[in-house]
Design goal:
Blueprint (H helix, E strand, L loop, with lengths): L5 E3 H11 L4 E4 L6 H9 L3 E4 L3 H15 L3 E5 L3 H16 L3 E7 L2 H4 L11 H5 L5 E4 L6 H13 L5 E7 H5 L1 E3 H4 L15 H13 L3 E5 L1 H5 L3 H11 L3 E3 L19 H7 L2 E5 L20 E6 L13 E4 L2 H15 L5 H27 L5 H14 L4 E5 L2 H9 L8 E3 L9 H12 L3 E6 H6 L3 H7 L4 E7 L27 H6 L3 E5 L2 H14 L3 E6 L27
Parallel strand pairs: 2-3, 2-4, 4-5, 5-7, 6-7, 9-10, 9-11, 11-12, 12-13, 14-15, 14-16, 16-17, 17-19, 18-19
Antiparallel strand pairs: 1-8
Helix pairs in contact: 1-7, 3-4, 3-18, 10-14, 12-14, 16-17, 16-22
């Protein structure tokens, strides 16, 4: 009978993924998952093959952020699994929902440590680095495994889930009836805060003299742009977006205080955190970035985040959309608006800083020294004409300058190194953005950051994706002018004369080499309009760039006098 026909574990896993609307797999195949990827294509899924597993896992994680449902990555056993592990951990820290599936060794050999091919207890190794890990030992459990993985990845605080797939399970057989494949119902249920929690927040906002809103990437992931706009437009409270929250409201919104960050945060007496965490990116909530007397309202899906670094006087637990919908009604009923003298003070500082910044940008267009401003402002000019373009950025100074220079108009169109600040995410994220949205993507890379996953340029060319990679080359990590010992290269030295653009040419893409603003502007327009894979190598001065970008304070300073111990 048809309902008694048996199918392989691989077949049933693919069916379960498809039943839940998952169409794409990012991965790198080999023993024991090669035929699994082939079967996925036969059954109608799209498989995108990478050159290293970490880039594939990064791509799946970025897909999760962009779509709000889990992306899927596939790796081989042991070394492939380990190559993807850092990306799995990073995605979980970033709160990106995705599922990493790895083929693994047979349990009866691993558990007795008998010495299997690429033998490793992957299931237990993965646990500390993800939201949850599950091992599937029977084909008949595939439906349940996928359901658990999806719900775990997206419910509460999103994160990475690891699915361990032993070789025996891939070929194990079961009927579809026994495998219990189904579509998960409401995998991330709404959560509303209590009325008394809303009342506490309203009381703080009502009495605030210097209120400020900080928007984090959690607010972007939650697709809360309409609710955030309503709150800001109603109250006029100044807001500052974290880097991946840029575009949740347009960067040129009249209430944006991004150009007066120090004044706004340092002078705030009430801070409303929306999907933002008081981690190192916000100095852990400490002085001098924030006043010691400031009071905090925090919206977060996970109550354990409250009081993690500072006392939170008004915690609002729930999904951001539901919390804001309830808060907006209460704020309107209370007639809350930000005090005009505070708005005027911030506006004065914003205008002053914007004028200084505009002068620097203008000067970079004709400067004899090609630097970050000259290389990056053409990207901003293009993004203002084509706001539906996605931007991915990484590096130290390249990331920092790009964040400041490139204005965003739409939510979830900027992806970068995020919570961990890890390099090597650029091309993986860019590939996912192009695949999942079909839109053009610009990957803005420092020369050091580009080196982590540069071979994924072959992946970009192989799939003919509309990605423009801009490598800002100053010949070093931070800069290329650091040399402390005469007869040795500095630890931060790279090749200032490297022709990174040739890597694109090697795989059939387009290539450009630029040394000034006008050349960069012309090359970018040509590259963008072509819709083809390409690299623009922007060779800036070796002296450009400072140690660790904006976070040099995190780098311990040692006495480097070579004669100090003589």
């Amino acid at each position: 009978m048809a309902d008694e026909e048996k199918f392989s574990g691989a077949d049933l896993l693919i069916d379960a993924l498809q039943e839940n609307g998952i169409k794409n797999i990012y991965g790198l195949i080999g023993i024991p998952v090669t035929d699994f990827a082939r079967l996925a294509e036969i059954k109608g899924m799209k498989y995108y093959g990478f050159r290293r597993e970490d880039a594939a896992v990064d791509a799946a994680a970025a897909a999760g952020f962009i779509n709000g449902k889990p992306g899927v990555a596939l790796t081989v056993s042991a070394p492939g699994f380990l190559n993807g592990l850092a990306a799995l951990a990073q995605a979980t820290k970033n709160c990106f929902p995705f599922i990493m599936i790895s083929g693994s060794s047979d349990r009866h050999i691993i558990d007795l440590d008998r010495g299997d091919y690429e033998g490793l207890d992957q299931y237990n190794r993965a646990k500390p680095f993800c939201k949850a890990a599950y091992r599937v030992d029977r084909a008949q459990d595939m439906g349940l495994a996928v359901a658990r993985a999806i719900r775990t990845a997206v419910s509460g605080r999103p994160g990475g889930v690891y699915l361990d797939l032993p070789a025996a399970t891939i070929s194990d057989m079961s009927t579809k009836a026994d495998a219990k494949i189904y579509k998960v119902v409401d995998p991330a249920p709404k959560q509303e805060p209590a009325d008394e929690a809303i009342d506490r927040a309203v009381d703080l906002l009502k009495n605030a003299k210097h209120p400020v809103i900080v928007l984090g990437k959690g607010a972007a992931y939650a697709r809360s742009e309409e609710e955030v706009k309503e709150l800001v437009d109603t109250t006029k409270i100044p807001f500052l977006p974290m880097s991946m929250a840029k575009g949740l409201l347009p960067d040129n919104h009249p209430s944006s205080a991004a150009s007066a960050r120090s004044l706004s945060l340092g002078g705030a007496d009430v801070v409303l955190l929306i999907g933002a965490r008081l981690n190192w990116l916000l100095s852990n909530g400490e002085s001098p970035l924030f006043s010691q007397d400031a009071k905090f309202i925090q919206i977060d899906i996970d109550a354990t985040e409250f009081d993690s670094n500072r006392e939170i006087q008004a915690p609002l637990q729930g999904d951001i959309k539901s919390v804001l919908q309830k808060l907006n009604k209460a704020v309107k009923a209370a007639g809350i608006t930000a005090p005009q003298d505070w708005l005027d003070e911030i506006a004065t500082k914003v205008n002053s800083n914007n004028e200084k910044f505009a002068a620097k940008i203008k000067a970079s267009h004709t400067s004899s020294t090609f630097g970050y401003f000259g290389a990056i402002t053409p990207i901003n000019e293009l993004m203002q004409k084509h706001p539906d373009t996605y931007i991915v950025s990484e590096g130290a100074n390249t990331l920092d300058n790009g964040r400041n220079l490139i204005g965003m108009q739409l939510p979830r169109h900027r992806l970068d190194t995020g919570t961990w600040g890890v390099m090597g995410i650029g091309l993986g994220y860019a590939i996912a953005a192009a695949v999942e949205t079909g839109k053009p993507v610009i990957a803005l890379e420092g020369d050091s950051a580009f080196g982590f996953d540069a071979m994924e340029m072959e992946t970009i060319c192989r799939y003919n994706l509309p990605i423009t990679v801009v490598v800002v080359n100053n010949g070093g990590i931070y800069n290329g002018a650091d040399q402390v010992v005469a007869d040795q290269l500095s630890p931060t030295t790279l090749d200032a004369n490297a022709h990174y653009e040739y890597l694109s040419k090697a795989f059939g893409g387009d290539s450009y080499f630029v040394t000034n603003y006008n050349e960069m502007k012309d090359a970018l327009e040509k590259a963008y309009e072509s819709g083809r894979p390409n690299i623009i190598n922007a060779q800036i001065a070796k002296t450009m760039g400072k140690e660790s970008g904006h976070i040099g304070n995190l780098n311990p300073t040692l006495n480097l006098d070579k004669d100090a111990n003589l």
